[in-house]
């Protein structure tokens, strides 16, 4: 028969197992607190690094900015030549194709097929490149529609009404808009002008669609690999929007509400949601590309909807707006509205009317716009100069900050390993 003392080892054993489980829980809780503390310190480090990069600009630290810019430029060139060396077979194929086209171009003579399509091909490539620049922007907000395509459409519109036709001298177009000699002036409709500028407008829109691909591929790669870049502000913004979307009582500003709406539209509606977002002038469309990449939307669904929206739907809206604004009959109607404004209305009307008459006379006689000094033309030239200068400065800042970001990330990774 068992005595009372025979149960003591069992009780003691059970007590030791309980203390072990307690120690494990305490150790797990301690490790969790340590991980949370480490993660918090990491986020603070990333935040400080980001602030340091934001201060690396030409007007705050010119010497350091230029030094980092030059180093990054050399790094990009070195990386480029290394890739050329690695992919020398592909480069050899490209060079062979170029050499073949060059031989055919010289052999067939000036009336050959390549000579016939050379000018429109290079011209279309130029507009595609401007569209890519406008979409990517390198953080400058550079919009080449305002700088190049919009003024070109306005110039075609004004000259079409001046000539009474959109059939300009083919050999001079698009560098110079020269009326056909002996042509009978007729009625020019908005649709005629839209058809005349359709090719450059489509190429520019296609370029803006191509410029939306980097955010898409960046987010898609991050989702597939599971590796998150701590310095990627776009992905961080997407996560913040996803976290704030479910908050009921939080007061959100208009911009945040717009981003949440864009996120939901693309995620829930799919192809037609992307098409709708791309079809209107939309500063939040970058978020659509990141959202599509994050949720692994198929490439052709994203790019097809973006291409149709930007190169076809939105471009027709923008073309129609520019042509409408610069059409002579609507300009005169606008001037008549200015004339009835009390105070400065009549004097402003006289000034604008005289300036339009002078400009029209110059177009008719073929004089240079430099003669007589067109003030609006000079203002636009200064505006373009300032925009290009700002673009160059921002490229310098962006490359310098990229160099610093890599150095900061390498330092953080080294500290993690230690």
Automatic annotation (TrEMBL):
The chain crosses the membrane at residues 88-105, 125-149, 265-281, 287-308, 320-341, 379-400. Residues 1-40 are annotated as: Disordered. It comes from the Eukaryota. Coiled coil: none annotated. Residues 28-40 have a biased composition (Basic and acidic residues). The keyword Cytoplasm does not apply. Residues 14-27 have a biased composition (Basic residues). Keywords: Membrane, Transmembrane, Transmembrane helix. The keyword Transmembrane applies. This is Vacuole membrane protein 1. It comes from Oikopleura dioica.
């Amino acid at each position: 028969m068992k005595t009372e003392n025979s149960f003591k080892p069992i009780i003691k054993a059970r007590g030791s197992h309980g203390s072990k489980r307690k120690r494990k829980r305490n150790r797990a809780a301690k490790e969790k607190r340590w991980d949370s503390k480490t993660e918090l310190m990491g986020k603070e480090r990333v935040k400080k690094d980001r602030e340091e990069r934001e201060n690396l600009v030409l007007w705050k630290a010119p010497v350091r900015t230029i030094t980092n810019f030059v180093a990054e430029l050399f790094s990009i060139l070195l990386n480029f030549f290394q890739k050329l060396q690695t992919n020398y077979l592909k480069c050899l194929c490209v060079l062979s194709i170029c050499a073949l086209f060059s031989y055919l171009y010289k052999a067939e003579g000036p009336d050959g097929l390549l000579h016939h399509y050379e000018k429109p091909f290079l011209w279309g490539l130029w507009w595609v490149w401007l569209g890519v620049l406008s979409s990517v922007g390198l953080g400058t907000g550079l919009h080449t529609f305002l700088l190049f395509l919009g003024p070109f459409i306005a110039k075609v519109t004004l000259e079409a009404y001046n000539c009474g036709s959109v059939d300009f001298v083919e050999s001079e177009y698009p560098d110079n808009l020269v009326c056909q000699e002996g042509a009978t002036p007729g009625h020019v409709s908005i649709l005629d002008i839209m058809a005349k500028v359709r090719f450059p407008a489509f190429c520019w829109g296609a370029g803006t669609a191509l410029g939306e691909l980097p955010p898409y591929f960046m987010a898609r790669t991050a989702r597939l690999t599971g590796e998150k870049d701590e310095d990627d502000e776009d992905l961080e913004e997407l996560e913040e929007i996803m976290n704030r979307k479910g908050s009921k009582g939080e007061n959100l500003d208009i911009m945040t509400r717009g981003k949440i709406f864009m996120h939901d539209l693309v995620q829930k509606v799919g192809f037609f949601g992307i098409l709708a977002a791309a079809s209107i002038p939309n500063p939040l469309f970058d978020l659509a590309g990141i959202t599509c990449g994050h949720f692994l939307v198929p490439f052709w669904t994203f790019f097809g909807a973006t291409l149709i929206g930007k190169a076809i739907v939105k471009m027709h809206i923008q073309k129609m707006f520019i042509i409408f604004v610069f059409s002579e009959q609507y300009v005169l109607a606008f001037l008549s509205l200015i004339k009835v404004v009390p105070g400065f209305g009549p004097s402003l009307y006289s000034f604008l009317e005289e300036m339009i008459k002078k400009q029209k006379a110059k177009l008719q006689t073929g004089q240079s716009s430099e003669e007589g000094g067109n003030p609006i033309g000079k203002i636009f030239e200064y505006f373009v100069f300032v925009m290009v200068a700002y673009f160059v400065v921002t490229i310098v800042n962006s490359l310098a900050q990229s160099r610093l970001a890599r150095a900061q990330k390498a330092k953080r990774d080294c500290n993690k390993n230690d």
